[in-house]
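Encode chain A's predicted structure.
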Amino acid sequence: MKPAPLRVDFFYDVVSPYSFLAFEVLMRYKPIWNMQVRLRPFFLGGVMQATENTPPGSNPVKALYLQKDVQRLSAYFQVPLKHPSQFPVFTLTAMRALTALSMAGDETRVEAFSRALWQKLW
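Encoded structure for chain A:
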């Protein structure tokens, strides 16, 4: 008897390159790892503001490390991405649209739209 699939709630904002990498790995391996991935879009900028936090890219030393780290992970996981010329990007409207699709229960469109946004941004 095959075990029940592992359920994973994946919270993300398309502004995050780490979320993009994690998304692609989860989608690639979900049938192999016997997972059901529930996509949970949210607005990271709102969380940062509410917690009085700053994005790692606002610190020059962290920004440099982030770029190198994302390049390494991109090569390792074979997920092509490049740093956008203008960053950070305000994603409130995009995340609201993804949340509306998610609330409507249209996981196929949430996955496709999320990927399209990431590929356009990154």
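The chain has a mean pLDDT of 94.
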